[in-house]
């Protein structure tokens, strides 16, 4: 069934691999990291030629700490998400939430690493 909203328990189904990255909003006092991406939604076939379909999406991580961003943009325009990996959960210092370490590999040359208590992904239409 198509969906337009995912949370932490749906991590394995968020489908961010092979998405084109559009924008990063770095955490400030709200401690959220936001990625606006074009999410790969499959191929649409017409009689003339296949078209690759992308859907605008937002991926927001909450209670972000220990953020590092490494991006080499020399002679390159744009970034794509290659993979998102996360660690096993561990309790936050107050033991009310769980932290996970996240690593987002970008192509051609980039890496975003941080610790977060979870995420939410939304799309403009179900995929």
Q: What does this entry look like structurally?
A:
It is globular, with a radius of gyration of 16 Å. It is an all-beta fold and 127 residues long. The protein has strands at 5-7, 19-25, 33-45, 50-62, 65-71, 79-86, 90-91, 98-107, 110-116, 118-123. The chain has one domain (5-123). Strand 2 (19-25) and strand 3 form a beta hairpin. Strands 1, 2, 3, 4, 5, 6, 7, 8, 9 and 10 form a 10-stranded antiparallel β-sheet that branches.
Question: Which features does this protein show?
Answer:
10 strands, 10-stranded antiparallel β-sheet, mainly beta, single chain, 127 residues, globular
Strand runs, count: 10
Succession of helices and strands:
EEEEEEEEEE
Q: How many H/I helices?
A: 0
Q: In terms of structural class, how would the helical and strand content be classed?
A: mainly beta
The low-confidence parts are: none
Number of domains: 1
Q: Percent range for helical residues?
A: under 10%
């Amino acid at each position: 069934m198509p969906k337009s909203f995912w949370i932490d328990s749906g991590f394995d189904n968020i489908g961010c691999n092979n998405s084109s990255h559009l924008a990063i909003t770095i955490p400030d006092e709200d401690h959220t990291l936001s990625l606006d991406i074009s999410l790969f939604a499959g191929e649409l076939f017409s009689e003339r030629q296949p078209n690759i379909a992308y859907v605008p999406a937002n991926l927001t991580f909450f209670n972000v700490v220990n953020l590092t961003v490494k991006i080499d943009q020399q002679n390159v325009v744009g970034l794509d998400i290659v993979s998102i990996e996360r660690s096993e959960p561990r309790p936050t210092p107050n033991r009310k939430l769980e932290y996970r370490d996240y690593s987002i590999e970008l192509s051609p040359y980039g890496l975003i690493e941080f610790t977060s208590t979870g995420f939410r992904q939304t799309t403009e239409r179900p995929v």
